[in-house]
Design a protein that fits this description.
It is a single chain. This protein has ten helices and 13 strands. By secondary structure, it is α/β, with parallel strands linked by helices. It is globular.
């Protein structure tokens, strides 16, 4: 069975700054901020939440169905997905704008500054989850996307009876507390990082325990510290996996979410899903770019 992944497809321009942002920015001069960073390392990668999650899920052997919109420059991304064995039946393309673009600069401490141009992503709501697109779908995820797309796709998935993960990510600030509560009430699971978790609690007026009681499970990822799995108000800490190297954090959260979806589709307990997620995140951070890592284990490692 397939997993529907609603989110962005984007081109990532990733730059490496060899210093520390904190050493270049004067806190008492933020009102007249004017800084320049020398970035000796630069690369362009396929990215976007839907693409990155689909890559992770496909790597694990799952069937990923990304739902997104590409721009006039998106032909190479379509070819990329097809070469990976990922269907493009729910990927649209428009000719009057560019594909979404993310410009990401990472310093030596893995802090990041990102500029994002949404481009064709703002038309993602034109792809709808109707009867045809819902065929063969076991579960789904609402990942960061255009505002209208996130609202409408959540409603459509809920109406179609497709259990889904609500993953607001960097799109969380676009929504009011009431809208976020509606997402949570429609969703089956919620996943956020620690910063997003604090914002979600602040905007909804509920703590993590309270939010977890509205869904089957809530996961808060903590980067190198592992993650918290909340089920019906009870928290379980899931230990991190030490990476072979710390090279590039771009896409680690998406790699984690691909593993989460793989486990959920297999019917695993949420803690086991999180354990695999931590393992995938550790693999990703050891490779440059969001879709260039490979597995260091075989299919038997995924068996019960």
């Amino acid at each position: 069975m397939a997993v529907l992944i609603c989110g962005s497809l984007a081109f990532d321009t990733i730059m490496g700054f060899e210093g520390r942002f904190a050493e270049q920015i004067l806190p008492d001069q933020l009102h007249i901020l004017n800084v320049s960073f020398l970035v000796p390392a630069l690369r362009r990668d396929f990215g976007g939440c839907a693409g990155n999650i689909a890559y992770s899920l496909r790597l694990l052997g799952g069937e990923a169905v990304p739902m997104a919109v590409l721009g006039s420059d998106g032909e190479s991304y379509l070819q990329r997905l097809q070469a990976l064995g990922i269907t493009t039946r729910c990927v649209g393309q428009v000719q009057d704008t560019y594909t979404a673009q993310a410009m990401i600069m990472t310093d030596r401490d893995n802090n990041q500054i990102t500029a994002f141009h949404p481009g064709a992503m703002m038309q993602a709501h034109t792809q709808t989850i109707g009867v045809q697109n819902a065929q063969g779908i076991r579960l789904g995820i609402i990942a960061p996307d255009g505002r209208d797309a996130m609202l409408q796709h959540a409603q459509q998935m809920h109406a179609a009876g497709i259990p889904f993960v609500f993953d607001p990510g960097q799109g969380l600030p676009m929504f009011s507390g009431d809208e976020l509560l509606r997402f949570v009430e429609q969703a089956t699971w919620v996943t956020v990082n620690d910063y997003e978790g604090k914002m979600l609690c602040e905007r909804t007026g509920l703590d993590l325990a309270g939010l977890s009681r509205k869904v089957q499970g809530l996961v808060v990822t903590l980067g190198g510290k592992g993650c918290e799995v909340w089920v019906q108000g009870e928290c379980t800490m899931v230990a991190p996996v030490a990476p072979a190297a710390v090279v590039d954090p771009t896409g680690c959260g998406d790699a984690w979410r691909g593993a989460l979806l793989f486990g959920l589709e297999q019917g695993w307990p949420l803690v086991r899903c999180a354990e695999l997620g931590n393992r995938m995140g550790a693999l990703k951070i050891a490779a440059r770019g969001p879709q260039n890592y490979t597995l260091d284990f075989g299919p038997k490692a995924l068996e019960a």
